[in-house]
């Protein structure tokens, strides 16, 4: 786990990532990627996992990195694409797809915003030799856009639109990302969250109780909120 | 004369500027947070974000791929010589949005809420939103765009007079903690708080407070300004930094706007304008020239109705 007062370790990773390289990554490490990453989110997951559509040819051989991302891309008159900014979307929403998706695609690195639950890492990711990298600050669109050297291919663009299509990006020194989970199922977000939580109760000291509560504070719908 | 073509040009240009160039006031605010931040991970995130602003400006590419829900705020001077009418402005801004979406490029985020269909240009039913305001004794038109992501960091609650300032603090903390975890609201943020009005104006005031005031610009009411400082300090003492890591940088600035409300209630809304706080303004002058800036100057004394006579009973 990253010690808050230590320098952060930086790692350059060649893709497809090997099992050995992945095993060395620890929560809090900074990672840059070179190779091919693909984007996929609910649109693609639904197509393939519920709709039964086949994976694009060659995906398994080309990339084992799934980026939860919708690029700011636009088609050019010559048929190529201009990719401006690239940033991640919140990953926790895709939790339900992950086990089946990792099995089918042999994906070993998932990149996104904000991580998944520690339980997902322990029961879905780590047993499949997969880890999670988070984007930094969540708005580093220009830095990540710089790392995208070209669009190798795009699938389901007409059906799913720019935001949901599967983009295959050739990337170089693509990053930075922070390692959230490792192969032991540790999570940087969970560990940091626990530290933050220690202080939370005291923040409310001395503030009077609210006049009206609301559902969410209680899940019992027979409760009155006054 | 201010015609539809110059409004289209200005709208297009501010879309590009907003997406690419971080406003100076926010950059200064984030650098102040960076100085305070003691934690290595949180400090690393802030440093990386500052590198990202530089990369965006150097490459002329959007700082964040989630270019939000682009929308506009238009302020029209009473004496502005407008040609083409108000629907002409709306038409020009729809066109500017579509053109900028392809050229910048912006992400075509706008979809039908139920059918998820889109036109790949950020234009659709009630989109882009345009909010209108007016200014006495001037002959210009200000057009401001704001690009703000929309999923996390905003909440509304009906509080009551008995909840008082404590109630606002409690709600503020709840929102910061709920959306600060894992950095869902992309803090450090400019936090805007709307107090009063009816439910919809409360949301509107809070959003405008977050997006249309510069960092370092306090509310003119000294007591409200004091509450702004207090809440900012409170947010930064949660113990949370960017991405929800241990740290002290949650709030770059806190802005409160108020509106007269129902005697029995005190509605409050909280909004966070993220690490990519994107806004740009164009002023269209009566002679047809256009000037660009990053400070929307939305909350004029007239806007807060400070210059309006309060007693309006007509004497017979």
Fold and architecture overview:
The complex is a heterodimer of chains A (226) and B (316). Chain A is of the alpha/beta class. Chain A has helices spanning 19-24, 42-50, 59-62, 98-105, 118-125, 141-147, 157-164, 188-203, and strands at residues 10-14, 30-39, 65-67, 73-75, 81-83, 109-112, 131-135, 148-155, 166-181. In chain A, the strands form two sheets. In chain A, strands 2-3-6-7-9 form a five-stranded mixed barrel. In chain B, strand 1 (71-77), helix 4 and strand 2 form a beta-alpha-beta unit. Chain B folds into two domains: 4-17 and 63-149 and 279-293, 60s Ribosomal Protein L30, Chain: A (2-Layer Sandwich), CATH 3.30.1330; 150-273, no CATH class. In chain B, the strands form two sheets. Chain B has a five-stranded mixed sheet with strand order 2-1-3-8-9, covered by helices on one side. A four-stranded mixed sheet of chain B has the order 4-7-5-6. With 316 residues, chain B is an alpha+beta fold. Classes of the chains: A alpha/beta (226), B alpha+beta (316).
What general form of chain A does the structure show?
A: globular
Low-confidence stretches of chain B: none
Q: Give the rounded overall mean pLDDT of chain A.
A: 92
CATH topology of chain A, by name, is fumarase
Q: Which series of helices and strands of chain A comes N to C?
A: EHEHHEEEHEHEHEHEH
Neighbour order of strands in the largest sheet of chain A: 2-3-6-7-9
The coarse overall form of chain B would be globular
Number of domains of chain A: 1
Class from helix and strand fractions of chain A: alpha/beta
Helicity range of chain B: 25-40%
* Total beta strands of chain A: 9
Q: Give the helix tally of chain B.
A: 7
Alpha-carbon Rg of chain A, integer: 20 Å
Query: β content of chain B, as a range?
Result: 15-25%
Which class of chain A in CATH terms?
Alpha Beta
- N- to C-terminal separation of chain B? 41 Å
């Amino acid at each position: 786990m990253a010690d808050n007062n230590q320098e952060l370790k930086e790692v350059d990773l060649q893709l497809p990532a090997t099992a050995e390289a992945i095993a060395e990554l620890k929560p809090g490490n900074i990672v840059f990627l070179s190779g091919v990453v693909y984007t996929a989110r609910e649109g693609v997951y639904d197509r393939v996992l519920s709709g039964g559509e086949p994976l694009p040819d060659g995906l398994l051989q080309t990339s084992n990195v799934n980026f939860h991302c919708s690029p700011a891309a636009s088609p050019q008159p010559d048929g190529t694409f201009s990719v401006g900014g690239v940033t991640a979307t919140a990953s926790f929403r895709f939790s339900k797809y992950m086990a089946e998706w990792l099995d089918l695609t042999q994906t070993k690195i998932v990149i996104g915003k904000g991580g998944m639950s520690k339980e997902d890492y322990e029961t879905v990711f780590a047993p499949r030799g997969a880890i999670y990298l988070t984007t930094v600050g969540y708005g580093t669109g220009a830095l990540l856009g710089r790392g995208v050297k070209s669009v190798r291919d795009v699938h389901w663009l007409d059906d799913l639109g720019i935001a949901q299509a599967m983009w295959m990006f050739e990337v170089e020194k693509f990053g930075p990302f922070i390692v959230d989970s490792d192969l032991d199922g540790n999570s940087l977000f969970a560990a940091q969250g626990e530290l933050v939580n220690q202080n939370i109760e005291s923040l409310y000291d001395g503030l009077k109780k609210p006049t009206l509560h609301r559902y969410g504070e209680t899940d019992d719908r027979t409760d009155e909120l006054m | 004369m201010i015609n539809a073509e110059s409004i289209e040009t200005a709208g297009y240009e501010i879309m590009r500027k907003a997406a690419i160039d971080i406003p100076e006031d926010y950059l200064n605010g984030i650098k102040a947070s960076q100085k305070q931040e003691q934690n290595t991970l949180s400090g690393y995130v802030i440093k990386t974000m500052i590198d990202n602003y530089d990369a965006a400006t150097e490459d002329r590419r959007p700082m964040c791929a989630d270019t939000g829900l682009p929308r506009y705020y238009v302020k029209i001077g009473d004496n502005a010589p407008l040609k083409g009418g108000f629907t002409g402005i709306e038409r020009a801004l729809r066109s500017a949005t579509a053109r900028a979406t392809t050229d910048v490029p912006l992400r075509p985020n706008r979809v039908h809420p139920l059918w998820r269909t889109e036109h790949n240009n950020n234009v659709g039913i009630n989109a882009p939103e345009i909010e209108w305001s007016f200014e006495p004794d001037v002959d210009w038109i200000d057009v401001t765009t704001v690009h703000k992501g929309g999923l996390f960091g905003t909440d509304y609650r009906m509080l009551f007079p008995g909840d008082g300032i404590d109630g606002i603090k409690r709600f503020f903390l709840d929102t910061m903690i709920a959306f600060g975890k894992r950095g869902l609201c992309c803090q450090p943020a400019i936090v805007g708080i709307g107090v009063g009005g009816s439910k919809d104006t409360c949301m509107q005031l809070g959003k405008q407070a977050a997006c249309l005031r510069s960092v370092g610009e306090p509310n003119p009411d000294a007591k409200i300004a004091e509450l702004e400082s207090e809440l900012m300090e409170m947010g930064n003492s949660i113990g949370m930094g960017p991405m929800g890591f241990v740290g002290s940088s949650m709030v770059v600035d806190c802005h409160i706007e108020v509106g007269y409300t129902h005697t029995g209630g005190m509605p409050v809304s909280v909004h966070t304008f993220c690490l990519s706080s994107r806004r740009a303004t164009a002023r269209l002058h009566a002679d047809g020239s256009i000037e660009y800036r990053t400070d929307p100057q939305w909350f004029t004394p007239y806007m807060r109705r400070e210059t309006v006579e309060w007693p309006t009973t007509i004497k017979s």
